[in-house]
Structures are given as C-alpha cells and as structure tokens.
Amino acid sequence: MPTSTPMHVAVIGAGIIGLESALTLLRASNRVTLIAEHLPGDLHDDYTSPWAGAHWRTHAEADTSQSRWDVETYKAWTAEIKEKLEDGLITSRLYWTHASPSDFDPTSSLWWSSHVSSFSPIPAASLAQGTHSGATFNSVIINVPRRLQHLLAAIQSLGATVIRARLPTQNGLPSALAAVKGLVGENIDAFVNATGLGARELADDEGMYPIRGQTVLVKGVAESISLWKNDAKGEIAYVLPRRGSGMTVLGGTNESGVWGTKASKETTKGILERCRAFAPELLNREGEFEIMGVQVGRRPARKGGPRVEREVVGKGDVVVHAYGHAGAG
Question: Whole-angstrom Cα distance, residue 168 to residue 178?
Fold first, then answer.
C-alpha cells in the first residue's frame, strides 16, 4: 500500500535485508537511496548474503516476534512463487538422530508444522539410515546470487539511487549518518540500518558476533532439501539444491564467535561424509561428490536476538535498525 506522504529513505547495506527493504519501500511509493560498500556480484568476506543457502527454515521459538516474521515470510514467498514461478516450492526432508531413540512426534512437537503446506511425518521404514524420526513439507529455496542481482535491478528500475561507499565508523552512528547526507546531497526523512555484522562498529553494538559457516558446492542439483540434526553428537548436515546453477550446497557448520574465513580441509571432509546418505543421487561412479568449490561465510548474529526497532539519533535522524538475524535473514 502506498504511504500517505512519500518519504526519502536511505537504506544502508545491500545484503538481502537491505535490498528487500528498499524494494518494499519503493513499492509503497517512497524514494530510496541505497548506500553500501559491497553490492550484488561482489564476493567478499564482509558481504554475507551471497554465501547463504537461503531456504525457508525457522529458528524461532513459538509465539515470538521471530516466529511471526517466519510465518509471514513463508506466506510471502509462496505467494510470489505462485505469481511469478520464481525458483519454486521444493520438498524439504528433516531428519533427527536422538541421544536415545524416543517417541518424538514431529507433528505435535514443531510449532510451525501447521503453518507450512504438505507437512507429514516420514514413516519409520522410509527414514535415512541412522536417523530416528523425520518429516517432510513444502519449503522455499532461492539462488541467492541470482536473487541479489534481481533485487538490485528491480530497485533501480523503480528509480532507486545506488551509491557504492564505505561509511566512517570511528565516531559512531551520528558520524555515519552525516556522511550519508553528504553523499546524497539532499534531505533524508529516514534511514534503514541493514549492515549486518557491520553494525558492531557502525551502531556500536557489541552484541553482534559471527556464526561461521563452511559449505561445499558440488556438481548436480539435488532432488530435495535435506536437513539432519544429530542430538547425540551435536552434528548437522544439510543438502540445499541451488536451482539454475547446476550445483548443490552441502553443509555445514555453526561456529559461534569465529571470525576466520579460511576453509578447513578436515571440515570439508566431514561435510561430505555426513551428507553422503542424504544426496546419493549426486554421487559419481566412484561414490564421491564432485567438488566445485568451498565457501565460508559469517552469519550476523546478535546477543538477545535481532534488532528491529526505531531509534531517533542525534538531533532527529530517524533510524530503523534491521540486523542481527544470524542465519535467518
């Protein structure tokens, strides 16, 4: 819906949150200037979005702001898919290995099961080897590099101004906002801070920290999403087909507080071993995956959860913060 009084909004950050925010604002008849150091097409350690697996899976507890956001996101994505047939719905298979076999019932134990389409427990006879329970449902997955490029083109077609710039952080958010005003050269009614881990310095938010994730790109497109959690050993595995690329993302790791982005050969070996049972269709004649690349990204997490709120900075600059979503951006 168009706003009653169109505003000029400066969006800081060109990851998935910044770009989606810019598009939403433009569709509501606002003017948008996007300012970012990194833009779609860039591959840089500080630009998180291109490394994402990007499938719908909630990390939230029931009856929280995050759970409501996740349900609305699922609805929005499925509606867009039906309208534009972009990427598409895909079967997601969830598997659990428990510390001790139990009568875990996915239908009653997962708060979100009633909010997704075609949710169904996997019969015991159909479970992957070494797992105790499972479920399937229709999920959503996107090719992130392609989506980022699409979003950038979309906002530019709607009249957004895009400025590539690194903002100063040494004097905090007021200094950065002043720099934005200088770059834009005209009045700005509001700002959106979608800087991810950059908010640690830009907004002086010491609660921001990385969750390092390493993944492996392999040849071929898996038939479905597969996610596995081993409660007994604290291990995870996931198979995320990247449609349109001829590849699949295998993962992964959740290394809280780790900033390093150098890939580990041992981690790669472990990922391939754990994913073997969940994507046998991708194995070659020798029973191995064909590796196309190894990726490391840093999910922008925040102590206490995402920061999504309005703040008035300095002498009246209105800032809407939207960062700290970790792997759920």
Answer: 10
